[in-house]
């Protein structure tokens, strides 16, 4: 990357560099310590983006006196179907600048805008949890996130679930559902792929989930719920600091009948509580969808996400989401595909849904 900016700051010169493998441990150490950083800022996503999904990664860091003081992970997603964008971070719910101070944040933001202009993308998208760039076009009314503290007492967490939802969890317990940790995605993938196909969503390739487990090790875990030895539901979760983030989940057609989804997330919360995690991050949902209602039923309050855009070639903020009426026919058709066909075609499409 050429012409990276340097700027004077009160504590010395701030320069911007492009992450390589040698500095990945230092990058991750900064992410672990920076309050603004999230699991999705970790360096492991760079390898997944490039080697599995086939997108160019531009992981920018701000440096002062040889020490990283800010990071901005960017992925360049360019497809025929969904356009050309520079995103922090593709396939992740949070992103944007994570920095030690405002000077470092400003330098990284300027570098990202310069890069977007040089790449001639349609737009730069920063997936912030709080507003950061006044005057930029934003999406404030589409996505929300759901986060809630986990009490150190398991029973208190159960009692904190609203009564109707708690009854669903107990229904799963009465059906003698059992949660089991898996060391691979062998049980998870068939459940997840069938589940998203029924929703009309193209699935990722199996190797994407295998790559996540490889990249993040013990911080990426699969929990599968069974009934009489048969898988009912499954979720792939991430762990970061004191947080657990259930990220990809699904269930069989039997799951609703036996409260398989409800028990799945309760069992995950219970296990996280017992292991000392203190925040349950249910992740992003679109307002007005089934997942939004499901999470609210657990007593979680929605918090708006602030996705900000620097428009380059685009004239307006993109509207690539299943609530867009122009995708309704595609979604309806996808639901009717045989599962083997959906699993074959899905990865070619999903890689563009950054």
TrEMBL record:
SUPFAM superfamilies in alphabetical order: Acyl-CoA N-acyltransferases (Nat)
Any single Pfam family the record assigns to this protein: Acetyltransf_6
UniProt protein name: Peptidoglycan bridge formation protein FemAB
Span of domain BioF2-like acetyltransferase: 164-295
Source organism (scientific name): Thioalkalivibrio denitrificans
């Amino acid at each position: 990357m050429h012409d990276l900016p340097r700027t004077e700051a009160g504590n010395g010169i701030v320069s911007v560099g492009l992450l390589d493998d040698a500095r990945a441990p230092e990058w991750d150490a900064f992410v672990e310590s920076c309050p603004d950083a999230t699991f999705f800022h970790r360096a492991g996503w760079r390898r997944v983006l490039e080697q599995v999904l086939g997108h160019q990664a531009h992981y920018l860091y701000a440096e002062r006196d040889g020490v990283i003081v800010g990071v901005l992970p960017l992925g360049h997603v360019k497809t025929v179907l969904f356009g050309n964008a520079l995103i922090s971070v593709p396939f992740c719910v949070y992103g944007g600048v994570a920095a030690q101070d405002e000077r470092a944040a400003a330098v990284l933001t300027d570098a990202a805008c310069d890069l977007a202009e040089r790449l001639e993308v349609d737009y730069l998208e920063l997936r912030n949890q709080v507003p950061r760039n006044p005057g930029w076009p934003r999406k404030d009314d589409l996505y929300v996130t759901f986060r809630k503290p986990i009490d150190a007492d398991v029973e208190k967490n159960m009692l904190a679930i609203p009564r109707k939802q708690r009854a669903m969890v107990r229904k799963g317990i009465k059906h003698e559902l059992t949660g089991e940790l898996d060391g691979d995605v062998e049980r998870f993938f068939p459940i997840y792929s069938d589940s998203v196909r029924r929703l009309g969503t193209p699935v990722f390739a199996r190797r994407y989930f295998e790559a996540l487990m490889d990249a993040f090790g013990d911080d990426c875990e699969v929990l599968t719920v069974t009934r009489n030895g048969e898988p009912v539901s499954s979720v792939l979760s991430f762990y970061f600091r004191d947080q657990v983030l259930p990220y990809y989940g699904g269930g069989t057609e039997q799951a609703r009948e036996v409260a398989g989804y409800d028990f799945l997330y309760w069992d995950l919360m219970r296990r996280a509580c017992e292991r000392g995690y203190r925040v349950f991050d249910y992740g992003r949902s679109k307002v007005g969808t089934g997942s939004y209602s499901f999470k609210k039923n657990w007593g979680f309050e929605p918090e708006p996400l602030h996705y900000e855009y620097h428009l380059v070639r685009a004239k307006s903020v993109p509207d690539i989401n299943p609530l867009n009426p122009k995708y309704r026919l595609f979604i309806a058709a996808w639901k009717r595909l045989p599962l083997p066909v959906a699993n074959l075609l899905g990865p070619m499409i999903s890689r563009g849904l950054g």
